Amino acid sequence: MLAFARWLMQRPAYAIGAAAIASLLPWLFWMGAAIAALATLRKGAVAALPVIIAAAIPAGWWWTQGDMVPLASVLLVTLMSVILRERMRWGETLIVGTLACAVMIQLGIFSPPSGTEAMLEQLRESSAEFDRMLTELGTQGYDTAFLAEVVVGGVTGLVVLLAAIICLAIARGWQAGIYNPGGFRQEFHAFRLAPRELGVLVGLGLISMVFGAAGFVLLGWVPLLVAGVALVHGFIGLKEMNGLWLAAFYALLITTWPMILIVLLLGLIDSFANIRARLARST
Questions:
Q1: Distance (Å, rounded) from C-alpha 270 to C-alpha 268?
Q2: Which of 81, 148, 162, 241 is 20 to 30 A from 46 (CA-CA)?
């Protein structure tokens, strides 16, 4: 993939064409988003605008077909690339990205095009058990249409945010591989949420709960999760452990909720304790 990234950066036309084709092909939107992020990280948003537009236009076509994930991912990763290029801080970048994605949830951008009522009606017809559950929720006074909108919007927003973060990491890795070999590994291994960044995250979460803005409440834990993942990467790197440990870690992270909670707790502790610095001093 690094050779592909080098080829992209040889001429703007290569990046423009590759971004457009990748965004147009099903399930390759992430590559178009990563290409747009790479151009933004290297050249800035203004100079990278042709590449961003090339990725956004096909993704916009998918939006008209009912799939809002590609375009939202391209736009979100571009915003995060601008923040990371200017501020050089992953914590601030992730917080801004999470906030932007939460705003999209609140605006109803991720709601089903046909509306939640039509979706619920289809689910009722397809599953008697689901119909029974919705009826029980209705008799208990819950607005099932609102609950469905929150769930669908939250899940879609989570997918978009995670996709944007992964695309940004890919682009940052490409950039480092071309211009600063080993730089991304060092950068990611050292990443932790500073106490003030954690405070901003908690503050935004509390404000969201007070005003009933479910978007940030649903997504606010993602930056802390990324910090916890970075801690695990940094620990394995410091101890020079086999890469199979990382594979096992991701397998558990994807398949088990307790592992996610453990990683969140590690990220929280590391924000104050700076575990990697302590480990480095003890070796």
A1: 5
A2: 162
